[in-house]
Amino acid sequence: YGKNTIKFLRLHKEGKKHFVKEVEVCAHLRLTSPQEYLEGNNSLVIPTDTIKNIVLVLAKKNGIPSLEQFAIDICNHFMTTFCQVAYVKTYVQEVPWQRLHEDGVPHIHSFICVPDGIRFCEAEQCRNGPLIVFAGIKDLKLMKTTQSGFEGFYKNEHTTLPERHDRILCGELFCKWSYGECKNFDFDCIWKKIRECILEAFAGPPDCGEYSPSYQKTVNCIQMLVLSRVSQVQVIEVVLNNTFYNVVDMKNLGLTNDKEVLVPVEAPYGSCACTLGRK
């Protein structure tokens, strides 16, 4: 049991300069005895309101040096404070606030919310077991308008999809990776490096791009690049939900539409997922 969607903004000040972290936290516990379920005995139950208050107090006392460290702090607190806690899992996701710049100059106290992917992390621990940390990015919308196709696929009497060697590749990406047993990592630096790998593998070189024969191959390219460059990552999961665009037929309007006006296909949409780990 636990408390979900604990939302708050943590404001940190260094002189006149302000720093913000707005997060949403879910904290779940498993106790050493199921008596509250089986017998209605609540003597070991930590109220979910207490769980919420603990999260807020930890944010006040420790700040949020990184999402991962804050999740670790929450796990450590419940494990060291309550002997009846057998397992704790913490999920933290961040609102994407970025410092506002005016003519290239960073503003000291103003921010803009940029929807370029939501950072999240998870930490979980069993009593007498290792602390395991996951991190990721979700709701990252990506598109490239060429250098993508889909050909040579299996066909039978139900196949109506035409082969394409030049199409728009667009999707919403979810990526989650495991660090294995927690160590003293620079989580912020690693997260930024992985995000850069995702964008590079998706898009290819900026002057020419790189051809993608399928969504599946693009997913694998992302995973391989991350594993090759970020040694701390042990396992990486990528899910890419596809958005298809159909070319509008303008013949009745007396116009030729050479893939210049397209409409998105909202539903149904395709999806591919893969989990890849080191040997």
From TrEMBL:
List the EC numbers from the record: 1.7.3.3
What pathway annotation does it carry? Purine metabolism; urate degradation; (S)-allantoin from urate: step 1/3
The UniProt annotation places 5-hydroxyisourate binding at T48, D49, F150, R167, Q216, N242
Which residues are involved in binding urate? T48, D49, F150, R167, Q216, N242
Q: Which UniProt keywords apply?
A: Oxidoreductase, Peroxisome, Purine metabolism
Q: Which residues bind O2?
A: T48, N242
State if Oxidoreductase is listed as a keyword: yes
Compartments in which it is found? Peroxisome
Q: Which SUPFAM superfamilies match?
A: Tetrahydrobiopterin biosynthesis enzymes-like
Q: Which reaction does it catalyse?
A: urate + O2 + H2O = 5-hydroxyisourate + H2O2
Q: Which GO terms describe its biological process?
A: purine nucleobase catabolic process; urate catabolic process
Q: What is its main location?
A: other
Q: GO CC terms for this protein?
A: peroxisome
Does this entry carry the keyword Cell wall biogenesis/degradation?
A: no
Q: Which Gene3D superfamilies match?
A: Urate Oxidase
Q: Please state what class of enzyme this protein is.
A: oxidoreductase
Q: Name one GO molecular function term.
A: urate oxidase activity
Q: Which domain of life is it from?
A: Eukaryota
Stored PANTHER family: URICASE
Q: Which NCBIfam families match?
A: urate_oxi (TIGR03383)
Task: Report the family membership.
Answer: Belongs to the uricase family.
* Main function: Catalyzes the oxidation of uric acid to 5-hydroxyisourate, which is further processed to form (S)-allantoin.
Q: What is this protein called?
A: Uricase
Q: Which gene encodes it?
A: Uox
